[in-house]
């Protein structure tokens, strides 16, 4: 097959495509359909269903911290904390590393260590490291406090988070009572 035959085939395909597009445009001009100014029917939404959907969405953010904390134990939290130890120290009087020292962190104001340079988001976050706050943060730090410079992926398992939180609480001068 020579190049002249290939050109004829490609030209035929191109003409068919242009013809289909042209017919579509011409039919839109000939058969103009005016859109209605108001909808012809309204869909009624049951307000109780809409409210319950909103309540479900907010309930997902709430967690039973008492049940969560019952899952973990400080001994396994110490093992899991080794992932954190690359950036954080947990010993009393420990120095700040890439991340701030975490001794006495439970119950402390977020971004409260004076000799550590926190991200702007962490410095402006006015909360206390409670059990609930730590749990939310440890799920995915960048999602919990948007703009934080902590690049940790998070702990997906509830038992792991509860164990780490118990371990952090244990490493304090005045551990908070568990919920």
Write the layout of secondary structure elements.
Elements: H1 3-30, H2 47-61, H3 65-71, H4 74-80, H5 120-124, H6 131-139, H7 141-144, H8 158-170
Helix pairs in contact: 3-8, 4-8, 6-8
Describe the 3D structure.
This protein has 179 residues and is mainly α. The protein has a domain at 65-170: Cytochrome c-like domain (Cytochrome Bc1 Complex, Chain D, domain 2, Orthogonal Bundle). 49% of the residues lie in helices and 0% in strands. It has eight helices and no strands. The protein has helices spanning 3-30, 47-61, 65-71, 74-80, 120-124, 131-139, 141-144, 158-170. The longest helix is centred in the N-terminal third of the chain and has 28 residues, at 3-30. It is elongated.
Characteristic key phrases:
179 residues; Cytochrome Bc1 Complex, Chain D, domain 2; mainly alpha
Proportion of residues in β-strands: under 5%
What is the helix content? 40-55%
Low-confidence stretches: 49-60
CATH homology superfamily of the domain at 65-170: Cytochrome c-like domain
| Number of extended strands | 0
CA-based shape: elongated
Structural class: mainly alpha
| Sheet having the most strands | none
Please provide a brief summary of the model.
This protein has helices at residues 3-30, 47-61, 65-71, 74-80, 120-124, 131-139, 141-144, 158-170. With 179 residues, the protein is mainly α.
């Amino acid at each position: 097959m020579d190049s002249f035959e290939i050109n004829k085939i490609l030209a035929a395909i191109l003409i068919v495509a242009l013809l289909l597009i042209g017919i579509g445009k011409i039919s839109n001009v000939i058969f103009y359909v005016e859109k209605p100014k108001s909808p012809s029917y309204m869909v009624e939404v049951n307000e109780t269903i809409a409210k319950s959907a909103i309540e479900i969405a907010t309930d997902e953010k709430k967690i039973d911290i008492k049940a969560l904390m019952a899952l973990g134990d400080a001994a396994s939290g110490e093992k899991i904390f080794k992932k954190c130890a690359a950036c954080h120290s947990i010993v009393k009087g420990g120095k700040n590393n890439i991340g701030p020292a975490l001794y006495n962190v439970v119950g402390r104001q977020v971004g409260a260590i004076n000799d550590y340079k926190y991200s702007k988001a962490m410095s402006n976050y006015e909360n206390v490291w409670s059990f609930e706050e730590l749990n939310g943060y440890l799920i995915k730090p960048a999602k919990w406090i948007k703009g934080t410079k902590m690049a940790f992926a998070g702990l997906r398992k509830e038992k792991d988070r509860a164990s780490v939180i118990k371990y952090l609480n244990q490493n304090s001068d005045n551990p908070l009572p568990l919920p």
